[in-house]
Amino acid sequence: MSMEVIKRKSTADQVYEVIREAIVAGKIPAGAEINQVDLAMKLGVSRAPIREALRRLEEQGFIRQEAYKRAIVTELSTKALIEVYQVRKALEVLAVKLALQNLTDKDLERAETLVREMDEETNHDRWLVLNDEFHNTIYKASENSFLLKEIETIRANMERFIRMHGSNMPWRSRKANQQHKEMLEAIKAKDIETCCQLLERHLESTLEDLLANIERKKQKI
Fold first, then answer.
1. Which of 35, 40, 205, 214 has its CA 20 to 30 A from that of 98?
2. How far is CA 36 from each of CA 19, 61, 88, rounded to the nearest angstrom?
3. In angstroms, rounded to a whole number, what is the distance separating the alpha carbons of residues 24 and 21?
4. What pLDDT is stored for residue 9 in this prediction?
5. Which residues pair with residue 70 across a beta bridge?
6. Residues 211, 165: Cα–Cα separation, whole Å
7. Would you kindly state where each structural domain of the chain is located, as residue ranges?
8. For 164-209, how does the pLDDT look when each residue is reduced to its tens digit (9 = 90+)?
9. Rounded to whole angstroms, how far apart are CA atoms 85 and 83?
């Protein structure tokens, strides 16, 4: 596991971000145990912020706590994927509804720029970063900090699935790019109903493609 040492006095928030990113990026894989003593030494912090960070990660579904205070990174089951997408769809549709009347010309210009950049991007990890920024540019206009925090947590959990099962689907990004363009046109037209329908279909399509790809991988084993 390669993680940068936190050289200055740390906080639980900093430790939390480092561990969560390591899980999302697959540096700490599903099923692996997080050793608090080793992690504290690697990060150069005491065990107190480690414990606080793990508590937050457990609440958000990234890890589970077992006997003798063992912290295990949660497995990526298809059941969990479906359940989380059901919640994700409801929250992101709400965010769009709240955001639509607040989006500025600057927000729309940035969204259009991101759509163009995604069209040209061939690196999957970089495309994911641009995709997140596109959605966040829209959702932040909801001006609901609690909602944005919940969406961010769910999207980070989903990124583990997408990095693991979506990197071999280059056609998926092209499909998503077209869906982004259609959503952006509906947003610019202030068409709430169409925009929400397009977003729902976009998320349903992503889930369907991930599940189909997971099934193909199983058949090859």
1. 205
2. 11, 18, 31
3. 5
4. 47
5. 66
6. 9
7. 12-73, 78-220
8. 766 666 667 888 999 999 999 999 999 999 999 999 999 999 899 8
9. 5
* Nearest alpha carbon to residue 107 among 143, 152, 140: 140
78-220 topology per CATH: Four Helix Bundle (Hemerythrin (Met), subunit A) (1.20.120)
Interatomic CA distance for residues 19 and 14, integer angstroms: 9
Would you state the structure tokens that stand for residue 29, as one six-digit string? Answer: 């894989």
Q: Can you tell me whether residue 72 is helix, strand or coil?
A: strand
Alpha-carbon gap, residue 204 to 89, rounded angstroms: 8
* Cα-Cα end-to-end distance for the chain: 27
- In whole angstroms, give the CA distance from residue 120 to residue 73: 34
The hierarchical CATH code for the domain 12-73 is: 1.10.10.10
Query: Can you list the positions of beta strands (E) in the chain?
Result: 33-34, 63-66, 70-73
Structure tokens at 74: 């949660």
C-alpha 84/C-alpha 75 separation (Å) is 14
Q: Rounded mean pLDDT of 5-19?
A: 72
